[in-house]
Amino acid sequence: MATVKAGRNKTIDTPLSEGQAYLERCITVTQKQSDLSEVTDKTIIGNTLDICSLLPAKSIDLIIADPPYNLTKSFNGTTFAKKKDADYEEYTRQWLSAVKPLLKDNGSIYVCCDWESSLIIGKVLGEFFHIRNRITWQREKGRGAKANWKNGMEDIWFATNSNDYTFNLDAVKIRKKVIAPYRVDGKPKDWSETENGNYRDTCPSNFWDDITIPFWSMPENTAHPTQKPEKLIAKIILASSCEGDIVFDPFLGSGTTSVVAKKLNRHYIGTEAEAQYCVWAEQRLEMAESNPEIQGYVNGVFWERNSLSEQNANQCEAEDSKSKRGRKCKAEEQSSESDGYQKTLFDF
Ligand SMILES: C[S@@+](CC[C@H](N)C(=O)[O-])C[C@H]1O[C@@H](n2cnc3c(N)ncnc32)[C@H](O)[C@@H]1O
Q1: Which of 17, 164, 254, 317 is geometrically suited to a Cys-Cys bond with 222, CB 3.0 to 4.6 A?
Q2: Which residue has its alpha carbon closest to ligand 1 atom 26?
Q3: In testing the pocket of ligand 1, which one of 28, 112, 272 has its CB within 8 Å of the most ligand atoms?
Q4: Could you tell me the residue ranges of all domains in the chain?
Q5: DSSP letters of 136-182?
Q6: CA of 273 to the centre of ligand 1 (A)
Q7: pLDDT tens digits, residue range 233-255?
Q8: Confidence (pLDDT) at 310
Q9: pLDDT tens track for 154-184
C-alpha cells in the first residue's frame, strides 16, 4: 500500500512513471558540441565522463561538484561501492580530468566531500587546480557512533584555474546582530542601527555553521539521499560567478545547483545518470519560476541561525519602505501559518 504523506510534508518524490513531462525536458548528448547553445539551461541524462568529452573547452565559469563520497550508497538502486583509497583517488582523478578542460581560465571549482574522502579530494584537486580554501560545513544531522565521534561536518574544497578569478565578497557577507555596539563620535562604527535592531554585515569565514540540510517540511526537499541545501549552493554561486555566467554540475542529483543558478540569474548545465533524479531536478526548476526564494537568504542578505523573526522583520521593513501598510506583510503571513519549518525553525 502506498504511504500517505503528512500534510506539511513537502518532499518532492514524483515517481518516474508520473514524471514523463519533466523527463521530456531533459536531453542526451551524443555528438560533439561546438558551443553551448544546445545544452545551456538543460539537464543532461547520462554518464558525466562521456558527456564532458562532448562539451566545448573553456566554456564554463563555475563548476560545483558533489560526487559520490567514498561510502557504499545507493542512488536510486545504482550502488556506489566504497573503494580502496587508491581506487577512490583514481576515480577522482578520472572525473577531474574530464571536467578540467571545460573550465574557463578565470573559472572556479568547488568539490564537496566528507572528512574521509576530503583527504583524497584535496590531494588530487591540487594536481589540476590552484587550491584556494577548504570550507567546513557544520551539519546538524549525523548518525551517532558507538566508538567514534558522530560526523557533523562536510568539507567543500574551493579551487581556481589561475590567479585571475571572480570573488564577490559583498554578495556573501553574513548579517549578524551586534552584541557590543561600538561608536565613534556617537555614530555606529561598521554597523547599522535599524528599527529592528543593530546589525553588522560580516566577512564570511571558511566555517559555515548557518546552514541546515533540507528536511521534509522545506519546499526544496526531495527524496534524493544526499541533497545539498540551496542556501549552501547560493553562497558558492554568488561568491564565484556573476549574473549570466554558466554554472556546471557534473553530479546534479536532485538539481540543487541548477535550481539555485536559475534563481540567481545564472545559466546552468547539469549531468545526472539517474532519470528519476532528473525528473525531480526539472520539477524543481519549474517550481523556481513561481517561487524564486532561497531559504535563509532574504533580500540579498545571508542571515545567521536562529534569526527567523529578524529575517521577517527585515522583510517587512523592506516591504514597508516600498508601499504603505494596510495589511500584514508577506513574511508575517508566512510565519503565522502553522508550517512545520516555520515552527521548528532554528537554522536558516
Ligand atoms: C552526492 S549526489 C549529488 C547530490 C546533489 N548535489 C543534490 O543536491 O541533489 C551524486 C549524484 O551523482 C550521480 N552520479 C554518480 N556518478 C555519476 C556519473 N558518472 N555521471 C552522472 N551522474 C553520476 C548520482 O546518481 C547522484 O545523484
Answers
A1: 254
A2: 253
A3: 272
A4: 16-168+206-298
A5: EEE-S-----SSSPPP-EEEEEEEESSS-----GGGG-EEEE-SS--
A6: 7
A7: 999 999 999 999 999 999 999 99
A8: 74
A9: 999 999 999 999 999 999 998 888 877 778 8
